[in-house]
């Protein structure tokens, strides 16, 4: 048994870090998410896939309250998400999020992008925050760009910075919303490699992606969503080789 | 040989003569089409008609520092009106012996402004310098200590008054405008309505009527015996007026911010104040530098409207000088002087804003 497997095994019987219970969400009259149930244990890697408009983004955005749900329960690391703004800020500090379009802060240098959260939210002294930021930049292989501005980097580099920015908050969970789909093909690999490294270190990850290679190699579970519902959920081996649901089969035949 | 040795096999030709040099420039910019040629010739004739006579009026046949009698029998400009009346034009009714006081106050203000232009000086200590500066300037203007005679605000006039009203007008209006813009975007209906009503009401009336209200209407509502200084009321009216316009410009900047910036800030756990102060406003305010400058420039020029409540800004002191029978005929010279004065100030402001914009540029 290697390190991570041991860790995963130890955590297996703890309370789940994310718990979603019969959650529903509407945009106006439109029922985007219907009866979502989800338990994520510490160290688990979950890939969410499904056709466009099926509600994948909405689901993971509900987990850090970028979107509000209307019915059911979302509990993150023991804190239930309600209208209480203090709870929301606490959850957000513990949940990292990586967006499709990076969303770096263009007026700040790479280093400042990374230290902002630790300094203002975690109250880390500036010097420590900068040291930590440099460590994470090294980890995503981009330390030499620390003093540049986001606009001066390529898309792949920006996305790696965005990942490092989230990591600087020492999150319990990382959410990824199609982190590679705005990138040119030759940059996808550099970002996926960073994500694979993260997974191997035991980071709990929820990843919306169409990169099925990534799903096969790192996911513990793959969830397939359609029309706001989780249609099928399985380990990657069975999910890809032996899909049960007709809609899953259709989807897989289209993208593989 | 100026052929780069990396491409020895290729021959580099010079462009045709008509494309480069003086001829090329003339052809490309002034005579490239028949109507441009016609316009070029027309303007050349016009300039020839206007420029030489102006030069001989302003510089050759003119006098620069003579008593008004000497101006009677010359063809050119009588610039003498400026140096002969400079102390009244600049300092107005400030008592004669004490004019070094507003003079040094203005120098302190300019010094502080120049010092603050440098972004390396944007630290906490800057605020302290300003606080000290403002106290010193106030003391110099008002007096009453260290043997300086008291000069009531009613006597503050000329350029110091213009500078004071416009500078503090802009400096106070900007943050107020930003707050109003944020308030207008607020989710709390009470705050939002208040801000909308305020902004729309102020923008619906001219500055003159606000000044009138501040000087005539407002005192009627004050309890017996309490008066608020007239200059202060004008200052407040200018601030309130400018802030409403700033607010709308800043709102535009806020609306131009992509949703992703808010979401990224939220997802880091930053609260509303931090998000606004660290992420949104720095970017939004940068976008609105050019339109803000427009508002600040017109605020600067609009301070001359305070004449209607009997304050004597630099435009009014010039007019008073012109009403002196000795100098009545020389309004052209006086107004040219004023125009140059205003132009220098406005140009300084706009070139600073351009520099600021450039220095805040961070690629793409
Ligand atoms: N702010 C909103 N207001 C109204 N409807 C919305 C809003 N955001 C998303 N929707 C709708 O909700 C549905 C789910 O959107 P969502 O972005 O979660 O889909 P997705 O699965 O992430 O799709 P994609 O693969 O294209 O990113 C879509 O039909 C979308 O049109
Ligand atoms: Mg999506």
Structure description:
The complex is a heterodimer of chains A (256) and B (364). Chain A is 41% helix and 23% strand. Chain A contains 10 helices and 10 strands. Chain A has a 6-stranded mixed β-sheet with strand order 6-7-8-3-9-10, sandwiched between helices. A 4-stranded antiparallel β-sheet of chain A has the order 2-1-4-5, covered by helices on one side. Chain A is of the alpha/beta class and 256 residues long. Chain B has 364 residues and is mostly helical. Chain B is built from 14 helices and no strands. Chain B is globular and about 70 Å long. Chain B starts with 20 loop residues before the first helix and ends in a 5-residue tail after the last helix. The A-B interface holds A 64-66, 85, 89-90, 92-97, 99, 101, 103-107, 116-117, 120-121, 149-152, 165-166, 169 and B 258, 260-261, 263-271, 274, 278-279, 282-283, 286, 360, 362-364. The complex binds adenosine-5'-triphosphate and magnesium ion. The site of adenosine-5'-triphosphate has 11 residues of chain A, from strand 2 and helix 2.
Task: Annotate the secondary structure layout.
The complex is a heterodimer of chains A (about 260) and B (about 375).
Chain A: H1 3-11, E1 18-27, E2 30-40, E3 45-49, H2 56-63, E4 71-76, E5 79-80, H3 85-94, E6 95-98, H4 110-120, H5 126-139, H6 155-167, E7 173-177, H7 185-200, E8 204-208, H8 212-218, E9 221-226, E10 229-234, H9 236-241, H10 246-255
Parallel strand pairs in A: 3-8, 3-9, 6-7, 7-8
Antiparallel strand pairs in A: 1-2, 1-4, 4-5, 9-10
Helix pairs in contact in A: 4-5, 4-6, 5-6, 6-7
Chain B: H1 21-29, H2 34-60, H3 81-91, H4 100-117, H5 124-142, H6 159-184, H7 189-203, H8 207-221, H9 230-255, H10 259-267, H11 272-287, H12 289-302, H13 314-322, H14 331-359
Helix pairs in contact in B: 3-13, 4-5, 6-7, 6-9, 6-12, 7-9, 8-9, 9-11, 9-12, 10-11, 12-14, 13-14
The complex binds adenosine-5'-triphosphate (ATP) and magnesium ion.
């Amino acid at each position: 048994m290697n390190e991570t497997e041991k860790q995963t095994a130890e955590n297996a019987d703890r309370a789940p870090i994310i718990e979603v219970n019969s959650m529903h969400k509407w945009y106006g009259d439109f029922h985007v998410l219907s009866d979502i149930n989800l338990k994520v244990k510490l160290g688990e890697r979950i890939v969410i896939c499904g056709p466009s408009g099926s509600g994948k983004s909405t689901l993971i955005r509900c987990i850090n309250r970028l979107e509000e749900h209307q019915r059911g329960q979302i509990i993150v690391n023991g804190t239930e998400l309600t209208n209480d703004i203090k709870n929301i800020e606490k959850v957000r500090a513990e949940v990292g999020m990586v967006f499709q379009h990076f969303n770096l802060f263009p007026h700040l240098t790479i280093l400042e992008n990374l230290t902002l959260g630790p300094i203002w939210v975690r109250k880390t002294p500036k010097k420590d925050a900068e040291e930590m930021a440099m460590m994470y930049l090294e980890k995503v292989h981009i330390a030499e760009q620390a003093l540049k501005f986001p606009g001066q980097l390529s898309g792949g580099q920006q996305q790696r910075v965005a990942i490092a920015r989230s990591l600087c908050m020492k999150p319990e969970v990382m959410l990824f919303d199609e982190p590679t789909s705005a990138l040119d093909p030759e940059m996808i690999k550099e970002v996926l490699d960073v994500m694979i490294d993260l997974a191997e270190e035991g980071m709990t990850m929820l990843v919306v992606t169409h990169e099925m290679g990534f799903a096969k190699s790192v996911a513990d579970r793959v969830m397939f969503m359609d029309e706001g519902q989780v249609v099928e959920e399985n380990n990657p081996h069975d999910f890809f080789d032996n899909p049960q649901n007709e809609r899953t089969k259709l989807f897989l035949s289209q993208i593989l | 040989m100026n052929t780069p040795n990396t491409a020895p096999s290729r021959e580099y030709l010079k462009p045709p003569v008509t494309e480069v040099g003086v001829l090329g420039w003339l052809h490309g910019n002034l005579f490239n089409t028949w109507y441009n040629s016609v316009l070029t010739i027309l303007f050349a004739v016009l300039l020839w008609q206007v420029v030489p006579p102006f030069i001989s009026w302003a510089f050759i046949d003119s006098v620069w520092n003579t008593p008004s009698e000497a101006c009677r029998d010359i063809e050119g400009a009588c610039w003498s009106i400026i140096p002969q009346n400079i102390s009244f034009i600049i300092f107005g009714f400030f008592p004669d012996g004490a004019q070094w006081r507003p003079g040094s106050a203005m120098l302190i203000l300019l010094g502080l402004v120049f010092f603050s232009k440098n972004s390396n000086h944007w630290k906490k200590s800057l605020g302290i310098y300003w606080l000290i500066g403002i106290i010193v300037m106030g003391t110099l203007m008002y007096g009453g200590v260290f043997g300086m005679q008291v000069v009531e605000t009613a006597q503050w006039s000329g350029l110091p008054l213009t500078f004071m009203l416009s500078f503090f007008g802009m400096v106070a209006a900007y943050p107020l405008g930003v707050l109003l813009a944020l308030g207008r975007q607020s989710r709390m209906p009470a705050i939002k309505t208040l801000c909308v009503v305020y902004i729309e009401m102020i923008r619906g009336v001219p500055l003159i009527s606000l000044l009138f209200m501040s000087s005539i209407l407002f005192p009627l509502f004050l309890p017996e015996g309490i008066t608020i200084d007239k200059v202060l009321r004008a200052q407040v009216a200018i601030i309130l007026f400018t802030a409403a316009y700033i607010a709308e410009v800043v709102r535009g900047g806020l609306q131009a911010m992509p949703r992703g910036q808010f979401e990224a800030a939220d997802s880091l756990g930053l609260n509303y104040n931090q998000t606004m102060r660290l992420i949104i406003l720095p970017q939004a305010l940068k976008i609105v530098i050019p339109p803000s400058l427009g508002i600040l420039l017109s605020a600067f020029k609009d301070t001359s409207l305070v004449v209607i409540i009997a304050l004597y800004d630099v435009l009014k002191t010039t007019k008073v000088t012109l009403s002196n029978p000795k100098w009545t005929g020389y309004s052209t010279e006086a107004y040219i002087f004023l125009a140059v004065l205003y132009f220098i100030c406005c140009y300084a402001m706009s070139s600073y804003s351009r520099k600021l914009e450039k220095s805040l540029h961070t690629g793409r």
